[in-house]
Design brief:
Shape: elongated
Largest sheet: 10 strands, mixed
Radius of gyration: 21 Å
Structural class: alpha+beta
CATH superfamily of the largest domain: Gcn5-related N-acetyltransferase (GNAT)
CATH architecture of the largest domain: 3-Layer(aba) Sandwich
Strand content: 25-35%
Distance between the termini: 27 Å
CATH topology of the largest domain: Aminopeptidase
Helix content: 25-40%
Number of helices: 10
Number of domains: 2
CATH class of the largest domain: Alpha Beta
Number of strands: 13
Length: about 325
């Protein structure tokens, strides 16, 4: 029996999420549990399931945008096709079936953005090449920075010398402490102020962060740093799958910038992620959001992340017009 593509319906929720959690390249951003944090009616999703003998063999979250364009992700950071650790022949089959489905359902364009390859349990670019071979092209690249974790290497020794000094100095200061807690009420004002410095607003409202934490308590952890009980910074971490941890927001109160709170937070995040068996910490994309070209790199951000031994990984968008 051939693979068929059918639209997702809520009775598949448990099987969908189970497939994502057991997949090679799925993340929390592909889970139906994650999409549930959106206010009802904010998005109209058109998630697709690839079924073989009634069982899920691949998933594609996303939605129709306009008359005839399918985008993935919608309302999430990463999307594209979720699979197990598949062979190239299967990748070709899945992409071919998707293009056939498009032809039969009036879809004229796809725009798919997958998580970087370091998010995969077993790095496997069969899908990417299958898409390119069958007519997709790269339409956008973002530069992200990820730290490869190594439990056998001293964490501080990997960081640049100034960072090392600042972390050690924070250890000696008994007024500084780091906690993993759920004090979003303390974190969110710092986040708002940080974003306002760049004339932008956070991706999430405070209510949405609280909802996400409620829906995905195992995937989201808030690292807060305090000076004499005053919250002076924090990192909101998304543990997106069993392989990768993502720093979604790294924030500080600039009044206490002299204490270098982010240096200490980054140490704690890397330490926690290493001890808990993750392979990478992704510190996020580094684009100049004020530039006309969305690919424009933010040199200062990239330089800052490289001080923590982060290396460039690309977030790629593959597109096709049919």
């Amino acid at each position: 029996m051939a693979i068929e593509i059918v639209k997702y319906t809520p009775e598949w929720k448990e099987k969908w999420d189970k497939f994502v959690e057991e997949s090679n390249n799925g993340t929390m951003f592909h889970l139906q549990k994650f999409f549930d944090y959106h206010t009802p009616g904010k998005f109209t999703f058109d998630h697709l399931m690839f079924l073989e003998k009634g069982e899920i063999v691949a998933l594609l979250p996303g939605a129709m945008v306009g008359e005839d364009k399918f985008e993935s992700p919608i309302g999430a950071s990463y999307g594209s096709i979720v699979t197990k650790d598949i062979k190239f022949k299967r990748a070709l089959e899945l992409v071919s079936i998707l293009l056939e489905y498009a032809k039969n359902n009036g879809i004229k364009e796809f725009e798919l953005t997958a998580a970087p390859v370091v998010y995969e349990d077993k790095p496997n670019q069969n899908l990417d090449f299958a898409m390119l071979w069958l007519g997709f092209n790269y339409s956008l690249h973002y530069i992200s920075s990820a730290i490869k974790l190594d439990k056998d290497t001293d964490i501080i020794s990997r960081f640049q010398s100034t960072i090392r000094r600042n972390i050690r100095k924070s250890f000696r200061n008994s007024d500084i402490r780091v906690e993993i807690n759920n004090r979003y009420d303390q974190f969110y004002p710092i986040l708002l102020n940080n974003k306002a410095r760049h004339d932008v607003k956070p991706t999430h409202s405070l209510e949405e962060l609280l909802r996400l934490e409620q829906l995905l308590p195992d995937n989201i952890k808030l690292f807060m740093i305090y000076y004499k009980d005053i919250p002076i910074g924090g990192s909101l971490m998304f543990f997106v799958n069993r392989t990768c941890a993502l720093c979604f927001y790294n924030m500080l109160d600039y009044e206490y910038e002299y204490l270098k709170p982010i240096h200490r937070i980054m140490y704690e995040v890397v330490k926690y992620s290493t001890e808990n068996g993750y392979s990478y910490v992704d510190i996020g994309v580094s684009q100049d959001t004020k530039a006309d070209n969305p690919m424009t790199p933010s040199m200062s951000l990239i330089d800052f992340k490289e001080k923590f031994d982060a290396k460039t990984v690309m977030r790629n968008t593959l597109s096709i017009k049919l």
